[in-house]
Specification:
five-stranded mixed sheet, pentosyltransferase activity, 469 residues, membrane
């Protein structure tokens, strides 16, 4: 799949600039403009991958896949400890084949690193009492540090929220779980890993902390039309949209889960199906708090994306596997037989989509084909000028050489150039640009959004001088 605008090539370009410049403190949105929207962990991993594997799509996506594989490993360890080996395997299958998880594992995003951190913390919290090794006892705090360096203070909320939701109904009986962790040393470890970067980032580009902490973590969520975003646009949605996103993110398993739950609720009642099992099992109630907190937290937020649900899908997957296994046992069906094709649904759809992208990449919002065509058909070093707007994919695939040209600058650029000029003009602005063209142009390439024209001002000026003579 090509990197398609906007998120993937935007983050890929930030990582490319980091790998190119060697600046490992401040991610740069473009030369001279710092990117304050996210901490650097994902950019560190992607830039390092560029250094090792070259600047290409596989290299920039590979760290996301590694993060998701590590997350699956943590979920398997947790589920195997409390529910057995077979359940752990199927929970991993459910998780890995949820639409959001499968897509995110091959996408250039910061979310795979956030979910690795929150999953490490949430699994370590329960595992520390059963396996009091250094890995699990301090894993909770390492997970917090990973989250802080991947997404920021939101990671603390997504870990503390489920814990409080689980603790409140039975504080006395569940505090023993909290005492299994070394809180003083652990929080010190979290601070030692994560805080130095925050300090250095503020020193290097003053104003970062105010924008990132206040803007990105408060105003973004409480103001649906927040206008302070320096790097994109607000995603204004109706309150409660997160639950519609939940159905998309968990597809196809969420629909099956609802289909299994509702008939049982009608037949046996809430007490028998939900309340009693939760009261009998601290692990089940813990998973439910983990699975529900994130969508509940974002229910009254209007500025959201479906990727925000990723941290809760691990717990959902274990609960889904438990419910599915119980239904299969009651129905006397083979568990593997009934999950095989359901688990394959999302991967098969993505394979077909990838094949389509390979055969016809210009149907996607990417400038890969146009930039590569321009590089092959013209002299080396000839830049492409994107008129009016310059997509992130153009910046990434051109290695930063694609330039931006405003409509009112086109005429002057053509008049002052003695060499052919490549203009990538948005289809929606063709009429506007046509009025300011001062020389003939020739169509060379067309994709979903742009048409590439070649203007030859030098030839036009020569022809006019001959006619004049």
């Amino acid at each position: 799949m090509p990197l398609s605008d906007t998120s993937e090539p935007r983050y890929a370009e930030i990582a490319r600039l980091m790998a190119q410049s060697g600046d490992w403190i401040t991610p740069w949105f473009e030369p001279g403009k710092p990117f304050w929207g996210k901490p650097p962990l994902s950019f560190w991993a992607q830039a390092l991958s560029f250094r090792l594997l070259g600047v290409n799509e596989f290299a920039v996506r590979f760290p996301s896949w590694l993060s998701m594989v590590a997350t699956v490993g943590l979920l398997i360890a947790f589920a195997r400890t409390f529910f057995g080996r077979q359940l752990a395997q199927w929970a991993a299958v459910v998780y890995s084949s949820c639409a959001l998880v499968y897509i995110t594992s091959g996408a250039v995003l910061t979310d795979p690193f956030l979910v690795l951190g929150t999953t490490f913390s949430m699994t370590s919290f329960m595992m520390a009492r059963h396996y009091p090794s250094l890995f699990w006892r301090y894993g909770f705090f390492v997970g917090l540090a990973i989250g802080l360096l991947a997404k920021g203070p939101l990671a603390l909320v997504l870990v503390a929220g489920p814990l409080l939701l689980w603790l409140l109904p039975n504080i006395g009986g569940r505090m023993v779980q909290f005492r299994a962790l070394p809180w003083t040393r652990g929080l010190l470890l979290t601070a030692l890993i994560s805080l130095p970067w925050y300090v250095m980032a503020e020193i290097k580009t003053p104003g970062f902390l105010n924008y990132f902490i206040v803007g990105e973590h408060f105003l973004r969520f409480i103001d649906p039309g927040w206008q302070g975003d320096l790097y994109g646009t607000a995603h204004e949605k109706m309150h409660g949209t997160i639950w519609w996103y939940w159905l998309q993110a968990t597809f196809p398993w969420g629909l099956f889960g609802v289909g299994l739950l509702l008939p049982n609720l009608v037949k046996k009642g809430v007490r028998a199906v939900i309340i009693k099992p939760l009261a009998d099992s601290a692990q089940l109630s813990y998973l439910l708090a983990w699975a529900l907190f994130t969508p509940l937290f974002f229910t009254f937020s209007g500025n959201i994306l479906w990727t925000y649900l990723l941290p809760c899908l691990g717990a959902f997957s274990i609960l889904m596997a438990l419910g599915w296994r119980k239904w299969v046992e009651q129905s006397q069906w083979q568990f593997a037989l009934n999950t095989r094709w359901i688990a394959a649904l999302v991967p098969m759809v993505l394979v077909l989509l990838s094949l389509f992208a390979y055969v016809s990449p210009d149907h996607f919002k990417t400038e890969k084909g146009l930039v590569h065509f321009a590089a092959l058909q013209t002299k080396a070093g000839t830049p492409v000028y994107y008129v009016d707007e310059r997509p992130f994919s153009a910046r990434f695939y051109s290695g930063g050489t694609a330039e931006l040209l405003k409509i009112n600058e086109v005429s002057a650029k053509l008049d002052n150039s003695t060499l052919p000029v490549l203009l990538a003009i948005p289809k929606k602005r063709l009429n506007e640009v046509a009025h300011v063209l001062s020389v003939p142009v020739q169509k060379r390439y067309e994709n979903k959004r742009y048409i590439l024209f070649e203007a030859s001002p030098g030839l036009a000026q020569t022809a006019m001088s001959i006619v004049a003579n």
